[in-house]
Design brief:
946 residues; mainly alpha; Serine Threonine Protein Phosphatase 5, Tetratricopeptide repeat; three-stranded antiparallel beta sheet; cell cycle; mitosis
């Protein structure tokens, strides 16, 4: 509190109001002088009565007791006018009022009086909680009396407060209007007043003072002012003391500058104490008295007081810098996250350095705050959680994050912060998984058991979903433990009626079964889809993300089953669903959070709070929410374009539709704009950008493979360049790019480079036929690479019988019983067309051709059907005269035109011309031959790619 706070409202910052305040003070002084003249007669009578009582020796013990208490009390400043005016009016305590005669030029103040209660002689009088200072006239010590102490005190109070008229209150004058204003007086707890001066205060003796100058000490009722704030003592300047007084005198206090009035309070070592006891209020400012001018006391020591003067230089303490550190840290993180999307796309060195600087500054502020000893427990636990989360997301300092989280968990255990404890353990599991996956799986199961013991179902869901994500990241999503974890999760959700949690658990289980590709994988996937379908009438399950993910799972299952006619219907349903939710605000355009409702438990409020909003959030009513990260609308549209193009590739009526759909996927990410509301860490943004780049690269590869089927090798090379420029991460895209490169060199007639790629170690086949690196994609591409080698080895310049026999022996057990029909069909095509010496018979060729034709029709694969018909014409009807041979040649040519492959079209037209010539149809033979030559030249021209 400053001096301006002691002024009435409206005058602290108004010069006119201050002048008006001084005028009111002068008017009150004039009124008081008039009242003093009227009270002289009453005072004289009262003084005579007091002299008679003071002459009695029985009063000696009482006045000696009051004198000792007076010497032991610290001095407090006079109260401001607003506090004095807030006390009850004097008329309510008319028999407790007293007046004082004018002594010299001193200004007298009137206050409501408090009747001092009686205390036994052996007990110390208790101090009031808050007292207003009272004038302290000089006192005279009287000889002891033989009357009982309590009787003397009662008679003294009765005589002292009798016949006193009401007196107006006079406020303390902190802002005098002129130098002639009366000086401010200070009083102690016993009501005695004194005046401060530069001279040392004289030592009080037991010499009796004149009778008129010894009024009885007065008290103020503490119950009236217990709730009033404590006022700082006015800064006074020393002034010469008049010769007529024995007490020090303080001149009018000048106005203090505002900068000093707002200083920080600190301790003071020059204040008297009361026998090592604290004053009534710890926040009360103590009077600053120089050591040479301190009042001497016979029984009081000197100790520190709770005075709080302003800190020199305006410096701030560490307690005030703590909020500033936290604000600066959060501002740095917010600014870094806002620019993360732009930085992730360009990765300019200057922008990355600026981002690292912002993150380092924020981490430094949090680290400094954590080293403070001013933290209360919950703030310390929250700071540990925040500091560790930034370390995990933005840095690679895993050990420091684990140490900080361990410290936060210890604080939570000590103070029973269950919400912060579970959230810290959740983050600690992520940290431990990056360092030791096996230990993370073991420890997370312990946490799940503990949550089940205490029936904290919300965190059971959170930890089980986290374990499922660990299985996905480690590539063990198809293991028995991963599927068992999802089944336990869905069982708890089904028992409690958390239908959204149940739907997500069944969805993840269906994806796991889709990856396994075991004998009964399709049945298990359809069972999971059926379990979710039972909840289609429940509104709590209809989230846009769940609906789209369920449709994508169902469509992927149909594509793996090679039921393309059913896939067409499902892809149309998916397209309509995406069109309906295209403008939905419940689903963000980019990947965001999905809130799954959970029925609230009675003890859930102890484990969920605003600090756990990254994992669990408190909802309205009887519902809480589990936070899951899902794909956004842009990602859903991209996957829809991918699936739509794959389905269109098997339809002969739309040969170019697949390429256009995949081009839309690439265009979707190339034209994506930076969202101003985007706020994620750079690590998360880089993950999203990596995923987007992978989808775009996958679309480029699909476009290149589709272009290879129509012998558009220039476009294949363009797609290869686009993929290399995107620099995809190592993984399935790497081997897909390698396979597309081998197709390009083989299709452009560069057989030596094609053989070099097909013999790459990444495309080697496992002799046992097991999955290579646990990936079905790598295994299938390795089989296709080996089949391409067999076809190239049929060329006279590249023929190698030993290598051919080795490849045939390696491929036969793997391909003949392969569950994938497309692999069996491709193997049969190669075996039917290749020549393996005398061991190859016509009957074997017929059996292989039969498999090719059946597989191509079942798959509705135009390319396979065209190749199968032309190979059959070449192996079975070469140089044969008859209608059957001519029909076979015409069927092959017609199917080749449907496929759009220029090379196969030229081959089919050449065989048709030969069949016409064998039948004697020379005109038709010439037309077919000319067409074949034109197509062959066109195919050769397409192989000339610079």
């Amino acid at each position: 509190m400053t001096y301006r706070d002691t002024m009435p409202q409206g005058q602290a910052f108004n010069a006119h109001g201050q002048q008006q305040f001084h005028q009111q003070q002068q008017q009150q002084q004039q009124q008081q002088q008039q009242q003093q003249q009227q009270q002289q007669q009453q005072q004289q009578q009262q003084q005579q009565q007091q002299q008679q009582q003071l002459q009695q020796p029985a009063q000696h013990h009482q006045y000696q007791y009051h004198y000792q208490q007076q010497q032991r009390q610290p001095q407090l400043p006079l109260p401001p006018q607003q506090f004095i005016q807030s006390a009850p009016p004097p008329t309510a305590y008319s028999h407790y009022q007293n007046s004082y005669p004018a002594i010299g030029n001193q200004q007298q103040y009137q206050h409501n009086q408090y009747v001092q209660p009686t205390f036994p002689q052996s007990q110390r009088q208790p101090q009031p909680h808050q007292l207003l200072p009272q004038p302290q006239p000089q006192r005279q010590v009287q000889p002891p009396s033989h009357q009982p102490h309590h009787q003397q005190q009662q008679s003294h109070q009765h005589q002292n407060h009798a016949h006193q008229p009401p007196q107006p209150q006079q406020s303390a004058q902190f802002y005098p209007s002129s130098s002639s204003a009366p000086p401010a007086q200070l009083g102690n707890y016993n009501g005695a007043a004194f005046h401060q001066q530069q001279q040392p205060s004289p030592v009080l003796t037991n010499t009796p003072a004149p009778a008129p100058a010894a009024p009885v000490p007065q008290f103020v009722n503490p119950s009236l002012l217990q709730n009033q704030p404590v006022l700082p003592s006015p800064v006074s300047q020393p002034a010469p003391s008049p010769a007529t007084t024995m007490s020090p005198k303080i001149p009018p206090a000048p106005r203090r500058p505002p900068a000093q009035a707002q200083g920080v309070r600190s301790g003071n070592t020059n204040s008297p104490r009361i026998e090592n006891r604290q004053p009534p209020s710890k926040n009360a400012p103590a009077l600053q008295i120089p050591k040479e001018n301190r009042r001497q006391s016979t029984g009081a020591g000197v100790a520190k007081s709770p005075a709080t003067p302003a800190t020199p230089g305006g410096s701030t303490t560490h307690a005030e810098t703590l909020p500033l550190l936290l604000c600066v840290a959060e501002d740095c993180f917010r600014k870094a996250d806002a620019a993360a999307q732009k930085i992730a796309r360009t990765m300019a060195p200057s922008e990355v350095a600026e981002h690292h600087k912002l993150v380092a500054t924020g981490l430094g502020c949090l680290d400094t705050a954590l080293k403070s000893n001013k933290l209360w427990p919950r703030l310390e636990a929250r700071l540990c959680l925040r500091y560790a989360s930034v370390l995990i997301e933005q840095t690679t300092n895993i050990m420091e994050a684990e140490t900080t989280l361990t410290r936060g968990i210890a604080v939570c255990d000590k103070n029973r912060f269950l919400d912060l404890k579970y959230c810290s353990q959740f983050l600690l599991m992520k940290t431990l998984f990056q360092r030791n996956q096996k230990a993370a799986f073991k420890l997370i199961e312990t946490h799940i058991t503990d949550c089940g013991t205490y029936k904290h179902v919300h965190w059971i869901y959170a930890f089980r979903f986290l374990k499922a994500s660990f299985h996905l990241q480690s590539g063990t999503a198809t293991d028995h433990q991963a599927i068992d974890n999802l089944r336990k999760l869905s069982g708890v959700a089904h028992m409690r009626g958390d239908k959204a949690i149940f739907a997500i658990a069944m969805l993840l289980e269906g994806l796991a079964h889709l990856t396994t590709m075991k004998d009964d994988w399709a049945t298990r996937v359809q069972m999971c889809i059926a379990q979710i379908g039972k909840l289609q009438m429940d509104a709590s399950v209809h989230f846009p993300q769940i609906d789209v993910l369920l449709m994508l799972l169902d469509l992927a299952c149909s594509l793996h089953q090679k039921t393309h006619h059913i896939s067409v219907q499902k892809v149309n349903l998916l397209q309509r669903k995406l069109d309906e939710i295209k403008s939905s605000e419940d689903w963000p355009a980019q990947s965001g959070d999905m809130l799954l409702p959970i029925n609230r438990m009675p003890n859930s409020l102890q484990t969920i709070s605003k600090d756990t909003r990254a994992v669990l959030r408190v909802g309205e009513g009887n519902v809480d929410y589990l936070v899951l990260s899902t794909i956004g609308k842009e990602e859903a549209w991209a996957l829809s374009y991918i699936f739509n193009g794959i389905v269109a590739h098997y339809r002969s009526s739309t040969p170019g539709r697949s390429s256009s759909m995949w081009s839309e996927t690439v265009k979707l990410y190339e034209e994506r704009r930076i969202s101003p509301a985007y706020s994620k860490s750079l690590t998360e943004t880089l993950k999203e950008e990596t995923w987007s780049r992978e989808v775009a690269c996958y679309a480029h590869i699909l476009i290149g493979l589709q272009a290879a089927t129509i012998s558009d090798w220039a476009k294949v090379k363009q797609c290869l360049d686009a993929v290399r420029q995107s620099n995809p991460p190592a993984g399935f895209l790497d081997i897909l790019t390698l396979y597309l490169e081998g197709v390009f060199w083989q299709g452009s007639a560069n057989l030596s480079k094609a053989l070099e790629i097909w013999k790459d170690k990444r495309l080697e086949i496992e002799p046992s036929g097991a999955l290579k690196n646990g990936s079905r994609l790598e295994t299938e591409l390795s089989i296709l690479a080996a089949l391409s080698r067999l076809w190239i080895l049929q060329e006279p310049g590249c023929k190698d019988d030993a290598e051919i026999a080795e490849l045939v022996d390696l491929l036969r057990p793997i391909c003949e019983d392969n569950p994938d029909l497309e692999i069996r069909t491709a193997y049969s095509l190669v075996m039917a067309s290749a020549q393996f010496g005398p061991t190859s018979t016509l009957n074997q060729a017929k059996s292989y051709l039969q498999v090719c034709l059946n597989g191509a029709r079942e798959l509705n694969n135009t390319q396979h059907l065209s190749m199968a018909l032309n190979i059959m014409r070449s192996r079975l009807f070469e140089n044969v005269v008859g209608e059957q041979a001519l029909k076979s040649a015409k069927a092959g040519a017609t199917q080749a035109r449907k496929s759009g492959n220029v090379l196969w079209m030229s081959v089919a037209e050449g065989m048709l011309a030969q069949s016409h010539e064998m039948q004697g149809q020379l005109h038709e033979a010439r037309i077919a031959h000319e067409t074949g030559v034109r197509l062959a030249n066109e195919a050769y021209a397409k192989t000339r790619v610079d």
